[in-house]
């Protein structure tokens, strides 16, 4: 992927027992600020019936995603996340083949 190719990041986070509310609040706190970051095309958070959280992000380029990941917002989330997530997040990267419409 070159720097101008859109990139998607998506995956599941499983809360530790008794930590769903805390993890939900942390994730919800990312949505609106992240949507305002340069290069954000789509930023969606879903809660699955099994209690896992599904996060789907599309960025204009890898450079935009990298810049987003370097923000204080993301650094703080990454610092707090392990306390509330059971195991490692299940994360994937891809290249969108259709628009987010």
UniProtKB/TrEMBL annotation:
All residue ranges annotated as the ABM domain in the record: 7-93
EC number: 1.-.-.-
A molecular function (GO) term: monooxygenase activity
Assigned keywords, A-Z: Monooxygenase, Oxidoreductase
The protein's name in its UniProt record: Quinol monooxygenase
Organism per entry: Actinomadura adrarensis
